[in-house]
Amino acid sequence: MARPLCLLFDCDGTLVDSEPLLAAEMETSLSAVGLPFRAADYTGEFRGARFRHIVAELERRHGSVDADRLEVLERDMRANLNRRLATDLTPITGATEALAALAGHPMGVVSNGPVNKIRTSLIATDLEAVFGRHLFSAYEAQCWKPDPCLFRHAAAMMGYAPEDCVAIDDAIVGVKAALAAGMTVIHLNRFPDAEQTPEGALTITSMFQLPRVIGRLEQDRTLATSQA
């Protein structure tokens, strides 16, 4: 009998509702060093992107900022964000229920964020026990979405081939990265009026829908194996 599919979840915006907190902290910090940024810019243009990529794009538009000043900015911003995550963070609606329903599957978190931010977020929302040590950060792998190598790294560390993994991600950069890695991809599209799911990915609009979709994928996989 085949092993159950390995499920690889993005963190921010997929498991936890951290993006409004992150966007607010970025607005305060970036604007203070002369890089105009509104919280709405994150959700509208930069959702899921690496922080340094966002900074580089803002510098291209508005002018360079001293590197030492940027280093202090990022350190202070992340410290402030971690404090807010620990007290104000909530799970994405339906995430807790979906993870409980899928408890028989191996699961990992694959995020462009630092591992301490991932862990803080999961602890704050009582999700840490679901994933244990299976937290895969781009900062540790030195590989950021949309490059597929982060998802490939996570699959290898979980002991699975990419084709036996399902990636669940709300951001287009993550969806494209997992598709390029050769995985089945489910796009949690919480903004269907504003965002289009990339070709090749499945779409859900709520985490409550996820167990049914995973169940159908398992059924199709079992059928294909029996006919092989």
UniProtKB/TrEMBL annotation:
<dbReference type="Pfam" id="PF00702">
    <property type="entry name" value="Hydrolase"/>
</dbReference>
<protein>
    <submittedName>
        <fullName>HAD-IA family hydrolase</fullName>
    </submittedName>
</protein>
<dbReference type="InterPro" id="IPR006439">
    <property type="entry name" value="HAD-SF_hydro_IA"/>
</dbReference>
<dbReference type="GO" id="GO:0016787">
    <property type="term" value="F:hydrolase activity"/>
</dbReference>
<keyword id="KW-0479">Metal-binding</keyword>
<dbReference type="InterPro" id="IPR023198">
    <property type="entry name" value="PGP-like_dom2"/>
</dbReference>
<keyword id="KW-0460">Magnesium</keyword>
<dbReference type="InterPro" id="IPR051600">
    <property type="entry name" value="Beta-PGM-like"/>
</dbReference>
<comment type="similarity">
    <text>Belongs to the HAD-like hydrolase superfamily. CbbY/CbbZ/Gph/YieH family.</text>
</comment>
<keyword id="KW-0378">Hydrolase</keyword>
<dbReference type="InterPro" id="IPR036412">
    <property type="entry name" value="HAD-like_sf"/>
</dbReference>
<dbReference type="InterPro" id="IPR023214">
    <property type="entry name" value="HAD_sf"/>
</dbReference>
